[in-house]
Amino acid sequence: MFATYLIGLREGLEATLVVSILVAFLVKSQRRDRLPQVWAGVGLAVALSVVFGSLIQYTSTSLLRTSESREFFEAVTSVAAVVFVTWMIFWMRRAARSIAGELRGKLTEALAVGSLAVAGMAFLAVVREGLETALIFYAAAESVAGGTGAGSLLALIGGIVTAVVIGFGLYRSALKINLSRFFTWTGALLILVAAGILKYGVHDFQEAGVLPGLNNQAFDISATLDPNAWYGALLAGMFNITAAPTVLELIAWVAYAVPVLVLFLRKPAAAPAKPAASAPAPSPAATTTTTVTSPAEATVAPVEPARPAATPTEAEPAAPVDETAPAERPQPAAAAPSPRA
């Protein structure tokens, strides 16, 4: 049940953060009159997600008559859930810093269109998380003993409720949490959960007769990893680690978990620092430009044409220019009254 709780927590917190960004933007923009449309869109997205999950469950239990067809359906949904989990965790890591700005921009455009556009924007922002949750929950619950029973459903709801409480605390500034670290740890755990779902999907393909090797076990460590003990049940329930997997199940679990974990936990390479450009020497009767680089942006400012250098008797010497400092522009020498004027 921990796997379904983790799914509800992770997906629920993503959806809660999206809703809190939209609500906070409307409140700060003095557009509270549009909050009902946002909540309407969110409610419609939740309702559609529940219907989608119920449809998956109904298809598996009522529409499919033979055990082979049910095993094949569960295998396909397992593979689809793994694809969605993998895409979701990498997308969140890449878009975490820009998602707030993108949502505010889309909501600004929706406000200019009308109330239906606001509701539609909120619906689209939340429905993806809901559909993913329904699909991943079904696959994760079916991969452990008990299936999509009351225990798994309560664990999912518990994770969603926890996510809502955390999101509300963040919105009210009553709770401080390192979201980057949170999504990193939960993402790593979800990769292991997805590896277990993929292992279960391979087993279903074998039972449906699509893949061979159902009776070809890789090893049997039942004497060491007792499936009836608490630790055996914990590993099987969280990551679908069993004592006697088939060869293809083991290959699928390792082939997915190891490279995806390495790619996810690897820190992105820092962009190489650009060499500091030295200030060009002024040339008579020519116009040059100097680029001033700051951590946020770069601006280009024109420099006036250089004047003929004055003799020491005609003007005070100009302050020396440090050509190694990219953040300062060379200033032209102060002109003194010419004795010829």
Care to give the gist of this entry?
The chain is mainly alpha-helical.
Helix content: 55-70%
Shape: elongated
Distance between the termini: 92 Å
Q: Helices and strands: which structural class? A: mainly alpha
The ordered string of helix (H) and strand (E) elements is HHHHHHHHHEE
* Largest sheet features: 2 strands, antiparallel
Q: Return Rg in Å.
A: 30 Å
Give the mean pLDDT.
77
Report the sheet-strand fraction: under 5%
Name the strands of the widest sheet in spatial order. 1-2
SS summary, helix count: 9
The parts where pLDDT drops under 50 for at least 5 residues are: 281-341
Number of strands: 2
Notable characteristics:
single chain, mainly alpha, 2 strands, 61% helix
What can you tell me about this protein's structure?
The protein is mostly helical and 341 residues long. 61% of the residues lie in helices and 4% in strands. It has helices spanning 2-28, 35-63, 67-95, 99-113, 115-142, 150-171, 179-207, 230-239, 247-265; strands at 288-293, 298-303. It has a two-stranded antiparallel ribbon.
